[in-house]
């Protein structure tokens, strides 16, 4: 999907928007709309894949894309700036990585999942941004971005679980499982938690991770 004259499509998707701990991540995958090549078999929105399948597909998706990047905004930044601003901040960081690798981002169509363009207000220089509901399901570039971002963020949370054990981050990835809420009550919040979000934690029902996409 692109526009007339576009030399590439940058598929974009976010991960970690609803977590209680850890960064929010924005993944980007660059695709040539004229010669896209064959995308990896089984590639789809990361919510529809098992963790093992995502781990298998992430390097294949990154290799299929002309370039890929993941930008992050920390829990502290989410507390100070708000989640929407941090989506834009993480995306700007991902775009910076792509630009530094030689991607001509100004000629691209940037494709966002959903109906809300949260990226354009964060940019100093306007890009051609297009939104599409269910793009993570219907557009391979966005599905690839979702898988690359999900695996990147999950690995960060798994590593963090080894540094600060007790919160179950290797399994809940920072989302609000019942065990995670219990750990916060017992151990207290850390610098990796979104403290402004935890103020309402008693009134928030724990998430059933088995039936939640954890985006």
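Q: What amino acid sequence fits the structure above?
A:
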């Amino acid at each position: 999907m692109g526009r007339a004259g576009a030399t590439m499509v940058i598929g974009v998707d976010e991960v970690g928007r609803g977590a209680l701990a850890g960064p929010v991540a924005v993944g980007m995958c660059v695709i040539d709309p004229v010669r896209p090549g064959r995308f990896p078999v089984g590639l789809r929105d990361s919510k529809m894949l098992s963790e093992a399948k995502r781990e298998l597909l992430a390097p294949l998706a990154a290799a299929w894309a002309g370039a890929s990047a993941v930008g992050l905004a920390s829990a502290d930044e989410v507390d100070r700036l708000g989640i929407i601003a941090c989506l834009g901040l993480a995306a700007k960081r991902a775009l910076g990585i792509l630009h530094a690798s030689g991607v001509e981002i100004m000629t691209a169509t940037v494709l966002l999942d959903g109906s809300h363009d949260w990226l354009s207000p964060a940019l100093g220089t306007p890009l051609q941004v297009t939104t599409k509901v269910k793009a993570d399901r219907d557009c391979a570039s966005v599905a690839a971005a979702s898988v690359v971002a999900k695996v990147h963020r999950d690995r960060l949370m798994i590593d963090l679980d080894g540094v600060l054990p007790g919160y179950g981050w290797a399994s809940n990835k920072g989302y609000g499982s019942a065990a995670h809420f219990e750990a916060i009550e017992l151990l207290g919040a850390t610098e990796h938690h979104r403290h402004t979000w935890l103020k309402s934690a008693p009134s928030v029902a724990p998430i059933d991770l088995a039936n939640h996409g954890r985006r």
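Q: And what stands out in the fold?
A: Residues 140-163 form the longest helix (24 residues).
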